[in-house]
Design goal:
Blueprint (H helix, E strand, L loop, with lengths): L3 E3 L13 E3 L5 E8 L13 H18 L7 E8 L2 H6 L1 H12 L5 E6 L10 E9 L6
Helix pairs in contact: 1-3
Length: 138
């Protein structure tokens, strides 16, 4: 399944995201709940921003893969951070983590600073929307 990228010239060239992703006809939509860096026991155990970003992205991709998708299935991501200045300062390291997990796939994205997340130690949460191939039995 491939998306058609929608990047109107009047918006300028996007860097590190795509302005719009048009999903393929007949695809199934997967909504991935906001994932934080909590371990299976339910608690965030690291305060390292980049490590949390890596764990969170891993969890998002785990959900997508469990549904039969892949990195390229993700059409939209919303990244919530509790410290935008830390995100900006750590962009090179975050970028390396992103490219390791996502390659050169840049879905439509938003980055939002929030005052806090559910787990008091959480610094990053990501939710995503993916479009998967039609179910083989459909």
């Amino acid at each position: 399944m491939t998306y058609v990228r929608v990047d109107p010239q009047e918006l300028g060239a996007p860097r590190g995201w795509t302005n719009g992703m048009l999903g393929p006809a007949g695809g199934r939509v997967l909504f991935v709940a906001g994932q934080d860096a909590a371990e299976p026991e339910g608690h965030v155990i690291t305060d390292d921003f980049v490590e949390q970003f890596d764990l969170v992205l891993h969890k998002v991709l785990s959900v997508v893969r469990a549904a039969g998708g892949e990195v390229a299935s993700i059409g939209r991501m919303v990244i919530y951070v509790t410290d935008l200045d830390a995100y900006r300062a750590l962009r090179p390291e975050i970028g390396r983590v992103y490219r390791t997990r996502m390659g050169k796939h840049f879905p439509a994205m938003a980055l939002v600073e929030v005052s806090r997340l559910v787990d008091p130690r959480a610094k990053v949460e990501i939710e995503a929307t993916a479009v998967l191939a039609p179910h083989p039995e459909a």
